[in-house]
Amino acid sequence: MDLHTISVRRLGELLARKEVGSEELTRSYLERISQVEDKTKAFITVTEEEALAQARAVDEQRVRGEELSPLAGIPMAIADNICTEGVRTTCASKMLENFIPPYDAAVVERMKKAGSALVGKCNMDEFGMGISTENSCFFSTTNPLDPEAVPGGSNGGAAAAVAAGEAAFALGSDTEGSLRQPAASCGVVGFKPTYGRVSRYGLISCASSLDQIGPLTRDVTDLALVLNTICGRDERDSTSAAVDVPDFKKYLVNDVKGLKIGLPVEYFGAGLAPLVADKLREAARKLEEMGALCEEVSMPHTDYALPAHYIISSAEASSNLARYDGVRYGLREDAEDVLGMFKRTRGRGFGAEVKKRIMIGTYALSTGNYNEYYVKALKVRTLIKQDFARAFERFDCLLTPASPATAYKKGELKDDPLAGYQSHIFTAPANLAGLPAMSLPIGLVDGLPVGLQLIARHFDEGTLLRAGYALEQSLEQTGRNRA
Amino acid sequence: MSKYEAVIGLEVHVELKTETKLFCGCSTEFGKEPNTQVCPVCLGLPGATGILNKKAVELAVKAGLALNCEIGTYTWFDRKNYYYPDLPKGFQISQVFRPIAYNGYLDLDLNGRIKRVNIARAHLEEDPGKLAHAGGSITTAYCSYVDYNRSGIPLIEIVSEPQISSGEEAKAYLEKLKAILEYAGVSDVKMEQGSLRCDANVSVRPVGTTTLGTKTEIKNMNSFRAVQRAIDYEVERQIEVLMDGGMVVQETRAWDEDLGVTVTMRSKENPDYRCFLEHELAPIELTPEWIEEIRATIPELPDARRKRLVEEHGLPAYDAGVITSSLALAEFFDATLKEYPDAKTVSNWIMGELLRLLNARNLELSEAKITPGGLASLLKLIDKGTISNKMGKEVFEVMFVEGKDPDQIVKEKGLFQISDEGQLSQIIAEVIAKNPKSVADFKAGKEKAIGFLVGQVMKATRGQANPGMVNAILREKLAE
Q: Disulfide engineering: B365 pairs with which of A31, A227, B126, B328, CB 3.0-4.6 Å?
């Protein structure tokens, strides 16, 4: 049996039946990493010792007959913008190349408690800014399904790690589609929970009002297991919501009868690759066959979502990244005086895309531009939220593409940054509205995966799991969702 | 009279008296080893998010209410973005768009004239860290050190309207503000420890006009007296510039205490703080019930206490003003009065001896050893005639330094008053016998001569004779 392709749930069963030990499982993943990592380059740091120590601890717990989490002993990867105590956390930036956090992010604490074995920290676009992982200051990651293709971004490393069998699941963050778009590119499930559902304590901020931690998994069942572990109120994060967390497994029922699904016409326009559109419509028909009601809906402000998103996220990032000044940690470039040190440190520590966003954000927040850009973007954000609210009066969830096309070729968008930004055009609106959204692999076009996105009401992750699970089951029968 | 008038507004930063910082659990205790009271949150480490200290909100509301402010029931934090090494996140979390308290006032008593100064706002914010330079300023120092113990300590910034007209008024404003905040128990208000800091915005304009002149911001004032002097200097400087046909440059100026001048610190070309909502913190929502609960915890404030001292105890307004200017003094007064119910006498001793010694030795009342009970006992000894008023002052000083009981001091020093008529008569008779010339002078109408004779009696008794009785007996005998 190939331990690197089966789901967390099945790995958990094997562990529970003691057909395989945690240490053995972890070693096999570490071995897999050493085999494929030359090509994939999904990890910035591989944490072999930590992973084995955790796996051994779980094995001992199992011998003692302790009650264990379904994630105990499962090898996982975490994006390199989530703090891990004692393990360097770089955000794929020169600025934090040697930054070792003295504390764990809230989700890392929860995963440690569950007993998952951290095999490594994943590559990403620097500070989450990008669509291809080509903006990492260290190296690019390759799409495991096509050596010529990028894995998407910003969490291309984490998505590639799961797709390449280097981790059974991964955690990353999603500010504008950074989990869902690479999930679509790599043929895995990517999930952005409702804003406030998962503690952001220890997530290195890019855009505070948009960032949300979420999982990348091989299937919807695994997604439910990971969500059960990471969701819930954390007193250290003021934006973490005091909302009850259900057992997400209860939504894993193969039944979508009566589920009302909206297809926003604006998401199926000119920007979408025709073959991808066909796949999505096919999936919608499948859902209808299973008893769901699919209908078109208009979300008239969709076109303005992406520009508004880039203004807001850049504005917030320009402030969040101000702390990297060389005074306390990270890179320091000495100079004659303190201002010189700030300038040289930031000049050398940040890559081109990060500098561009800082400049855009600083410009948008400056006196004279503030109302024209920042405030206007906030108004658009309100309109986007209203579009969603109106749609959710009629529909339980919305079905859209996760990305305008399948994975890009390496370097394809180097000279066309605007086309690159378009890559998040279908995912960014859910961040603006704080809604839960899922990207689900539904098949291949020219050998590359296509991602379908489902968006639901605030804190209604359950509907996404229900619809996603049903769709996955039906595709599983026809064997069409696997690369 | 000058053709120009000064327009002054004060920005006062006050550290709130909380156990822990505004967004984390680190201690706020003053004077600890640098960088020992820090955590990922107040160091601005990547990924660390903070949560709001409820006590700080309560104290801010309490301060706002004590300053007659309206309280915002829905306010939030914003980011004020600027780079400085003492600012760990590259932005300060403050309330830019909606202060927690606004539209307040306080009344100044300027030698009997009451002047109301409006308070535009009082908002919550975090303190930055503290810099220490190895030589000169941040630009000239060989190196600089940062202590983040202060980073994240809760502050309220209290901004007055530009309604203050002189250095003296500014000082009166600060004294009143300090007293109110001290009474309300929201801050230690110690300028020397930095728990109260003041910047002044100063401009001048021709008398009779209403447009504001170009202002300068004055910093680096380390006492109320320095604020007064700096403002007076700056007003004169600006008037001179204008009289010479020049223009006042908008800038930040530093007060140089030694030279007694203000000097250019940095030109201020409207710094752009790019303020926007702090998304990592929830808004502050206050119910009217909670605000009322906080209001109920505010004790009697200086104005009310002063009024009470005048109305209930018949103190002169001036005395009442001095005594209520600090909570400790007012408490000392009340406690003494409980055991010695002559308000004016108690007031005289507090305003005379106590304040004189505190000022001379530059001490806080809490550092003096004398207790209200001790003062009351002392006053009773004087009333009984055991010691004289003059001896009382001597005893007071010992009590002030050593904290002993007055009876004990009197005994130890042998400081009792001779009030025995027979004993005094005998001594006086001897003095009269020994000084026939002075006696003759007095009888010849030279009133002054009696002073010499009293002096001789005091000398013979080593100052212990009851001076009132000596005088009376002497006159009686000389009249014989």
A: B328
